[in-house]
Amino acid sequence: TLSDRLTATFKSLRGKGRLSEADVDATIREIRRALLDADVALPVVRQFTSRIRERAVGIEVSQALNPAQQVVKIVNEELVGILGGETRRLRFAKNPPTVIMLAGLQGAGKTTLAGKLGRWLREQGHTPLLVASDLQRPNAVTQLEVVGQRAGVPVFAPERGVSEGQGVSGTSQGDPVKVARDGVAFARDKHHDVVIIDTAGRLGVDGELMQQAADIKAATSPDEVLFVVDAMIGQDAVNTAMAFMDGVGFTGVVLSKLDGDARGGAALSVMGVTGQPVMFASTGEKLEEFELFHPDRMASRILDMGDILTLIEQAEKAFDAEQAEKMAAKLAADEDFTLEDFLAQMAALKNMGSLKKMLGMLPGMGELREQLDNFDEREMDRVEAIIKSMTPLERRQPRVLNGSRRLRVAKGSGTQVSEVNTLIERFGEAQKMMRAMRRGGGMPGMPGMPG
Ligand code: GDP
Ligand code: MG
């Protein structure tokens, strides 16, 4: 992990009174690698590391921190800086309704976000209205209506007007721009103070779609245009963001699917190239899985620096570098359960064919035997093939496996991306269990086991 690598760098830098250029370079190399692993776009990485270098060369060593720790501290400050420093809040219109338009590729999470945002605003005493301007997919309107119902927020849709029996007749069928305009007018009329316009997306950047979004924007003059982007798309986030910035223009970013393995490099990339802040994070399919975006938390997620930052805090408090180093060593020793271990376990399981027979001879083992019978050896071979198609980094840190990496692994192992996904999901569960065991010394949720 980055923590380990930096810990090693720390060691070599100990006892120095001032950072040389070479010292800084060594640390920056690690940081650069970590950023690329987190799928931050290369131009952004370059810009970022050159700024770190400027600040870091020649810094004096403080009493509490050694030079490398100070570099890491600078890195963190700069990251938080790029990510916007403080959470940017929604801008509300002086004269309601406030119009919030959602834009982004299909599957980015716009419709889900409409519900989340609506629910969140309603809880704060607002009276939001969702507007169904995605008329591209046949069931898009229905999807928004379902989401609205769950969120307890009315939905303005063509033809059907507003759901929940408030009935407005729709002459706007088929024209998403007209639906948007009518929706805003309806909201003004019925005193909804916020309008959230859900729009259509395509699977890729598409001229016609951009034009439609631009037209909706022109027709409704939104106070905020939120670009919704799937955090899992990694490096692609930059191109998509640029295309939407040029084609539609947006005032804020929402990162969705941050509950997955994505490390959030997309946040840094999108902000780096468009200058627009990430405002919200979507962290699950449920409506309440939604939060304000916190730059400081994202900074540590991107650099995987949780451990390091804790170390630094400790060091600053205790003024005891020795202690900090001991802690670092301890953290480094507490290696996580990796896919490599998973693979080793598999190999062990493979030799258990004879166990099946043995269990069959023992009384009361029927159920366990049945489970073993369900254990498909061919599936195990596929799992093995998948893991072997991963790079060492991916095996150690499966969360770097973004969409394109997963596709490569699937191709390399002759399997489907869905199988790779399933494996990673299962592995994640195994990892959680291992962690819990390490912490608590027992197996959670397993009857008859301590803990
Ligand atoms: P849209 O095409 O941009 O409107 O995207 P949708 O809102 O329809 O979302 C596409 C899929 O992603 C759906 O299956 C959602 O349930 C799922 N989804 C949306 N946001 C999140 C999220 O934050 N986390 C997870 N895990 N899934 C999400
Ligand atoms: Mg949608």
TrEMBL record:
Binding site for GTP: 104-111, 198-202, 256-259
Principal location listed in the UniProt entry: cytoplasm
Catalytic reaction(s) noted: GTP + H2O = GDP + phosphate + H(+)
Signal sequence, renumbered to the chain: none
Superkingdom, taxonomy of origin: Bacteria
Domain SRP54-type proteins GTP-binding: 277-290
Keyword terms, alphabetized: Cytoplasm, GTP-binding, Hydrolase, Nucleotide-binding, Ribonucleoprotein, RNA-binding, Signal recognition particle
EC number: 3.6.5.4
Record localization: Cytoplasm
Keyword presence, Protein biosynthesis: no
The protein's assembly and partners: Part of the signal recognition particle protein translocation system, which is composed of SRP and FtsY.
Domain writeup: Composed of three domains: the N-terminal N domain, which is responsible for interactions with the ribosome, the central G domain, which binds GTP, and the C-terminal M domain, which binds the RNA and the signal sequence of the RNC.
Function: Involved in targeting and insertion of nascent membrane proteins into the cytoplasmic membrane. Binds to the hydrophobic signal sequence of the ribosome-nascent chain (RNC) as it emerges from the ribosomes. The SRP-RNC complex is then targeted to the cytoplasmic membrane where it interacts with the SRP receptor FtsY.
Family statement: Belongs to the GTP-binding SRP family. SRP54 subfamily.
The protein's name in its UniProt record: Signal recognition particle protein
Organism whose genome encodes this protein: Kineosporia succinea
Lineage start: Bacteria, Bacillati, Actinomycetota, Actinomycetes, Kineosporiales
Stretch of the intact protein here: 4 to 454 of 532
